[in-house]
Structure formats: structure tokens, C-alpha cells
Design brief:
The chain is mainly alpha-helical. It has one domain (2-64): Orthogonal Bundle (434 Repressor (Amino-terminal Domain)). It is 67% helix and 0% strand. Helix 2 packs across helix 3 (28-35). The chain is globular and about 45 Å long. The N and C termini lie far apart (31 Å).
Length: 90
């Protein structure tokens, strides 16, 4: 969703994650995490990303559908289970 849009906009501009990070004034690892759905985006960082791309913040939500909300808890639960399993294996 949001991460996919950020990745698409970044690639449309021919930027790598480091270049976007500099423009958005965030860390490169944060960009990676957002694009891969592992990091949440605060309102201020949403504005930073929009500013970096030169778009209105609402443009970052393009393609988002209300039906996508139903999958969010399922994805979050799966991510949490994976983290717990990885922690046990250490």
C-alpha cells in the first residue's frame, strides 16, 4: 500500500533508497522498512516523503481501497508471529 506507492514513485524518478532518504530527511534503513511494510509512517514523515516527491500527501495513498483495511490485522499478526519465531531460534 503506502510502501508500494513510495517505492513506485522513487523508481519512477530513478532514485535509489539513499537518494530518497536524503531528499526526505530520513534514514535509508527507514525508507527500506517503509517500502517493505515493516515500519509505520508518522504524519510528519508522510509530509517529508510527499515533499521529497513534490506531490500532495494524498497522492501517497493512491490505489488504497477500504477493503485493504481488512487485511491489515492479518498481516500484522503474521509479522508478529514471524518475529517471535525468529527470536526463539536465536
Amino acid at each position: 500500500m503506502l510502501g508500494n506507492t513510495i517505492r513506485d514513485l522513487r523508481k519512477e524518478r530513478g532514485w535509489n533508497q539513499g537518494q530518497l532518504a536524503v531528499r526526505a530527511e530520513v534514514h535509508e534503513n527507514y525508507v527500506w522498512g517503509v517500502e517493505n511494510g515493516l515500519r509505520n509512517v508518522s504524519a510528519i514523515n508522510l509530509l517529508y516523503f510527499a515533499s521529497a516527491f513534490g506531490v500532495h500527501p494524498s497522492e501517497l495513498w493512491r490505489g488504497f481501497k477500504a477493503a485493504d483495511l481488512k487485511r491489515l490485522p492479518e498481516k500484522s499478526a503474521a509479522r508478529l508471529r514471524a518475529k517471535k519465531t525468529a527470536a526463539r531460534e536465536r
